[in-house]
Design a protein that fits this description.
Layout lengths: L8 H7 L4 E7 L8 E7 L17 H14 L2 E7 L1 H7 L1 H14 L7 E5 L6 E3 L2 E8 L7 H24 L5 H4 L5 H10 L10 H8 L1
Parallel strand pairs: 1-4, 4-6
Antiparallel strand pairs: 1-2, 2-3, 5-6
Family: Belongs to the RNase HII family.
InterPro entries: RNase_HII (IPR022898), RNase_HII/HIII (IPR001352), RNase_HII/HIII_dom (IPR024567), RNaseH-like_sf (IPR012337), RNaseH_sf (IPR036397)
Protein name: Ribonuclease HII
């Protein structure tokens, strides 16, 4: 499939007259937890104002948009790949798998899947092969991808907050599992547990030490 760097609603209409699903991921870089993806089919009759790349929104705004997307979207679904799957497949292939799971879980079958980034896995839904396109920086260009980025981001952040409650000594609520100095210091002091990605170099190095 071709890669489109910019797409407007009119552009999408030229090759899709049916349902369009946007897909994005969160959590490729952290040392711990699942990589989380989301697929969202928006309702053109119920527009949502203020959608954007989740990283460009405040936490308060993301939370508000999360609720609005869940209320107004025609369909949405969260997919994920576990740390064990990441260690087995590598982070790229695990992310592609999580994206496929997100699309497969939609209650409606999209005609087209738009994926943030520069590559897209093959998608199927209820046995049907779907057309897909990858869009560089699509989370800031396409409303459905923006919505997916928000759903994925809020979902994973909440999971890191829950992990913080279970393991407060690691500081997950602050760094969300990313490789910060504070996180490295916590790992060095307290070690790693099952939800860590043991194939990631910093974690692997600590385990070997």
């Amino acid at each position: 499939m071709a890669v489109f760097k910019t797409l407007t609603d009119a552009d999408i209409a030229t090759f899709s007259t049916g349902l369009v699903a946007g897909v994005d991921e969160v959590g490729r870089g952290p040392l711990v937890g699942d990589v989380v993806t989301a697929a969202v089919i928006l309702d053109p009759n119920r527009p949502i104002a203020g959608l954007n790349d989740s990283k460009k929104l405040s936490e308060k705004r993301r939370e508000a948009l999360f609720d609005e997307i869940c209320e107004k979207a025609l369909s949405y679904h969260v997919g994920r790949a576990t740390p064990a799957e990441i260690d087995e497949l590598n982070i790229l292939h695990a992310t592609m798998l999580a994206m496929q799971r997100a699309v497969a879980g939609l209650v409606l079958t999209p005609e087209l899947v738009l994926v943030d980034g520069n590559r897209s896995p093959a998608f199927t839904h209820q046995g049907l092969s779907l057309m897909s396109h990858s869009i560089v920086k699509g989370d800031g260009l396409i409303a459905s991808i923006s919505a997916a980025s928000i759903i994925a981001k809020v979902t994973r952040d909440r999971e890191m907050d829950a992990l913080d409650a279970a393991y407060p000594q690691y500081g997950f609520a602050k760094h969300k599992g990313y490789p910060t100095k504070a996180h490295f210091d916590a790992i060095a002091e307290h070690g790693v547990f099952d939800q860590y990605r043991k194939s990631f170099k910093p974690v692997k190095a600590l385990l070997e030490r």
